[in-house]
Amino acid sequence: MNRYFLVLWLVLCGSMGTAFGQARQITGVVKGPDNEGLPGVTVLLKGTTNGASTNVDGSYTLPIPADTKTPVLRFSFIGYVSQEVLVGSQTSINVTLASDTQSLDDVVVIGYQAVQRRDVTGAVSSVSAQQIKDIPVNSAAEALTGRLAGVQLTSSDGTPGNLNVQVRVRGGGSVTQDNSPLYVVDGIQIENALSVIAPQDIQSVDVLKDASATAIYGARGANGVIIITTKKGIEGRTVVSYNGFLGFRKITKTLGVLGPDDFLNYQWERARLVGATGTGSVATFKSLYGSTNFNGDTIRTLRNAPFEDWQRDVFGRSAFQQTHNVSVSGGTKGTTYALSLTRNDEQGIQLGSDYTRNLVNFRFDTKASDRLRIGLNVRYNDQGTLGAGTGTSGSNGSNTTSRLRNTVQYQPFLGGRNGLNADPAFFDSDFADQSGNLFNPIVTINNEYR
Predict the structure, then answer these.
(1) Same domain assignment for residues 300 and 425
(2) Percentage of residues in the chain with pLDDT exceeding 90?
(3) Cα 187 from Cα 190, distance rounded (Å)
(4) Kind plus residue range of the DSSP H or E element containing 251
(5) Of 101, 151, 255, 287, which has the most beta carbons under 10 Å away?
(6) What are phi and psi of 384, to 5 degrees?
(7) In a domain, 114, yes or no
(8) Is pLDDT at 418 greater than 70 in this prediction?
(9) Distance CA 88, CA 194 (A)
C-alpha cells in the first residue's frame, strides 16, 4: 500500500510541476479612438522578441512564459501613441490607442531640412503617395500632371511610357538655354528622374519654385527644384504588398478622309487644272491610275474599290497595358529596408510603338549611432520600345516618315494602274515618286523599324 501512495504522490508532483512551468495566455482587444478594433497592432512582450499582431477585429493572444518577472506588454501601431501595460496577474488586457496627431502632420522637404507645412514660407507645391496611388498610369509624369500648382508637364507625342515629358516650373526662364528643373531623388541629383521612377515607389514630391526655397542649390536650381522622396521601410514586421492594374486604350475620334470615289474625282479635277504635263498633271494621273478615260472600266474599278481606312489600320487597335508592382518592406529598431519590383507593359494605339520596362528599387537605412545615419539606394532600370515609336526619324523625318501625313493623305484603296491589290503592305513606288513622297503608312512603319 505504501508503494501505491508513493507512486500517486510522484504523479501529482509531476503534474503540478508541469502546470507551473506552462506559459500564461494573455488575450484582449485593441481599439482606436472610435472604439473600433484595430487590425495589425504589434503586441510585444517588453525586453523579448515574443510578440503577436491583432486580428481583423483587433483581438490578440500572446503566451507569456511562467518564469517572466514583472511582464510588460507594449502596444504599437503606425499613427497611434504606443502604450505599455503591466500584466501582473491579469489574463485579459484590453487597450484603446490614441491617435498620434504629431506624426500625422504634413511634412515638406525643402532641401536642407524637412519642416511642417504650416512653417513653410517659400513657394512649394507638394503631392503625396496617397494622391497618386490609385491613378492607373505607368509614368510618374502622367501621375503628377495637373496636381502641382505652377508646374507644367507637356508630352511631345503619344509615346507609351512618356519618356520625353517637358517639365516647366513657373514657365521658362531662358529663350536659348535648357529650362528643365533640377531633380533630386532621396538627396541624389538624377537627370530626367520622372522617366526612371515608378509612380508606385514615390512617397512624396515637393517642388521648390521661388528663390528662397531653391537658394541652397544655387544656379542649378534657377529653373526650380523637384525633390522626390521614395518609399522606405517602417520598423516592425515585414510587409509584402501588391499593386497592379490592366486596361485598354483606344482612339475616340479620327479625321474625316475621302473615300475611293471622292479621292479619284479630286485627283482628276486637280490634274485637269494643272494641265497636260508637269507634276500632278493629266499625264501623272494616267501614270498613277492607268487611264485618262475617267468613265472607263479601269477608273471605274478603282472607284468601286473597297475603302481602305489607314487611320483604322495604323491607330485603330485596342492598346493593352498592364502594370504589376510587388514591394517588401520592414525593419527593426534603427534599421529599415524596402524593396520594390515593377513591371510595365504598354501598347501604343499606333502600330510599332509598344513599350516595356522593368524597375528595381531598393532602399536601406540604418542608424549607426546618435550622430551617424547610413543609407543605401540602388535602382535598376531596363526599358525599351518595340518598334520605331511614334516620332519621326531620318533627314526627311518630318515629311517622308510622318505617321499622320501618310495615314491621312495616302490613297484610300489598295492598288493603282496595275489594278487592285489586296496586300495592305503593298508598296507603290510610282505613287510615292509622283505624289510628293507619300508612302503606304504600314510599309513606312515596318521598314523604318527594320
Answers:
(1) yes
(2) 13
(3) 9
(4) none
(5) 151
(6) -165, 160
(7) yes
(8) no
(9) 55
Which three three-digit cell numbers place residue 106? 504634413
Does residue 413 have a pLDDT over 70? yes
Report the phi/psi class of residue 46: left, alpha or beta, with left for phi > 0 and alpha for psi in -120 to 50.
beta
Crossing angle of helices 282-289 and 260-274, rounded to 10°: 150
| 77-84 long-range contacts, CB within 8 A, separation 24+ | 77/30, 77/38, 77/40, 77/41, 77/42, 78/103, 78/234, 78/236, 79/103, 79/104, 80/32, 80/38, 80/41, 84/46
b/e per residue 146-163 (b: at least 16 CB within 10 A): eebeebebeeeebbbbbb
Q: Which domain holds residue 326?
A: 236-250+322-347+354-385
- pLDDT, one tens digit per residue, over 116-162 is 554 555 677 788 888 887 777 778 888 888 888 888 887 766 677 76
Amino acid letter at 362? Answer: F
118 and 218 assigned to the same domain = yes
Clarify whether residues 221 and 242 are in a common domain: no
Q: Are 36 and 184 members of one domain? A: no
Q: How many domains does the chain have?
A: 4
Residue 312 to residue 197: CA distance in whole angstroms:
33
Burial class (CB in 10 A: 0-12, 13-18, 19+), 167: buried
pLDDT in tens, 25-45: 899 999 988 888 888 899 998
255 lies in some domain: no
What would the pLDDT profile of 179-214 be if each residue is shown by its tens digit? Answer: 888 888 888 888 888 888 888 888 888 888 777 666
Are residue 340 and residue 415 in the same domain, yes or no? no
d(CA 310, CA 404): 10
Do 447 and 439 touch, CB atoms closer than 8 A?
no
Domain assignment of residue 364, yes or no = yes
CATH, residue 240 = 2.20.25
- Single out the residue of 398, 319, 326, 325 nearest to residue 355, CA to CA: 319
CATH number for 217: 2.170.130.10
d(CA 163, CA 192): 9
Is residue 317 a part of any domain in this protein? no
Please state, in angstroms and as integers, the Cα–Cα distance from residue 387 to each residue in 138, 185, 212, 352, following that order.
Answer: 19, 31, 45, 4
| Same-domain check for residues 116 and 217 | yes
The rounded mean pLDDT for the chain is 78
Please indicate whether residue 56 or residue 4 has the higher confidence score (pLDDT).
Answer: 56
Tell me if 39 sits within 8 A of 54, measured CB to CB.
Answer: yes
Rounded distance, CA 18 to CA 370, Å? 46
Residues 170 and 57 in one domain: no
122 and 225, same domain (yes or no) = yes
